[in-house]
Amino acid sequence: MDKKIAIIGTGYVGLVAGACFAKKYSVICADIDESKVEAINDGRAPFFEPGLDELLDEVHSAGRISATTDIEYAVAESDFIFICVGTPSLPDGAIDLSYVRQVAEDIGRALANVDSFRVIIQRSTVVPTTTKNLVAPLIEKNSGKVRGRDFGIAFVPEFLREGNAVSDFLNPDRVIIGADDPETAGMVESLYRDFYSNFPADKFLRMSIESAELVKYASNSFLATKISFANEIAALAEKIPGVDVDEVMRGVGLDHRISPHYFGAGPGFGGSCFPKDLRALIHFARECGIEPILLESVLERNIRQARHIVDVAEQVLGGFDGKRITILGLSFKPNTADMREAPSLRIIEEFRKRGAKDIIAYDPVAIAETKKVIGD
Q1: Listed residue (115, 223, 216) closest to 174, CA to CA
Q2: Does residue 273 carry a catalytic annotation?
Q3: What is the C-alpha separation between 222 and 24, in angstroms, rounded?
Q4: DSSP character for 366?
Q5: Exactly one of 20, 84, 273, 288 is catalytic; which is it?
Q6: Higher local confidence (pLDDT), 374 or 59
Q7: Where do the domains of the chain lie, and which CATH numbers do they carry?
Q8: Which of 158, 166, 160 is nearest to 45 (CA)?
Q9: Do 65 and 56 contact (CB within 8 A), yes or no?
Q10: Range scoring the smallest mean pLDDT among 106-110, 144-148, 332-336
Q11: Whose C-alpha in 176, 252, 266, 326 is 20 to 30 A from the C-alpha of 106?
């Protein structure tokens, strides 16, 4: 029987998942943004992501994906409901759960009119205990249903890289399934095993919901740590004649215990995940009575990196008076237009603070998004 999937939230995580799942299943995307719904129903991606437009056109033409603003309809028509809404940072570093809370309530109200068992899969990044202690109770309260009897809930973290998201979804390193009841875990694993029919069995990992929630934060924090470590070594390498940090990190990364990925020295990390997830994990650790010394250092090294880059430029140029500064590349990484917490913004701000008045910039895909943030 054809599995039917609802995707609630059509940002990078949601729409990429929806378009990929639609290669095999029937998918309904739900979003409150009418412009996104209209674009998807036209077979167009509402944002830039390599390969997504082509994939969306393919599955839309095949009649396997549609979009709506009616969450109740999407839930009623689906067997599996994926929560893929944003969890942005609050000023204290904690995550803003307002979107997750609203969607959980909406799903609950929709389930009140549904008789058959449904599986809700949380994909939004949330700190441990959130799915079980917030999302599930809100669904129960608004539906009158009982978790484990009338619906199941699971947490399946996403590990997509912007600029490579379609390929990452279709070729994952592992599938983490966080679920506390065997029936739900089995249904979720069956969905993914069917989709990834040639995927090795040992790559499907079942665990508790809380463990799965922490896997996401631990993974992103470790990758951010590698980036900050590379930048720390780069700062040291600059002080030693004859040292090339790229050669150093290549030599380190070829150790099979370490790997060369995320070991390039540069302007630091940005985007919608690493900075936000680090802050959230730091905040959560403190709530748990842990002083996250290492994580705080990773974040501080990243913040300092913009100042360090401008320090080097100032030293080489002898000041910025009468100098034109060119920034090549604006988005937080190649092949995306995403400007969220892009290192380029911190670098431009630092140049301006030090009196640089003539700054021009180029990016192949992110100019429009940059203008929304800093103007013309």
Answers
A1: 216
A2: yes
A3: 33
A4: -
A5: 273
A6: 59
A7: 4-207 (3.40.50.720), 241-374 (3.40.50.720)
A8: 166
A9: yes
A10: 332-336
A11: 176
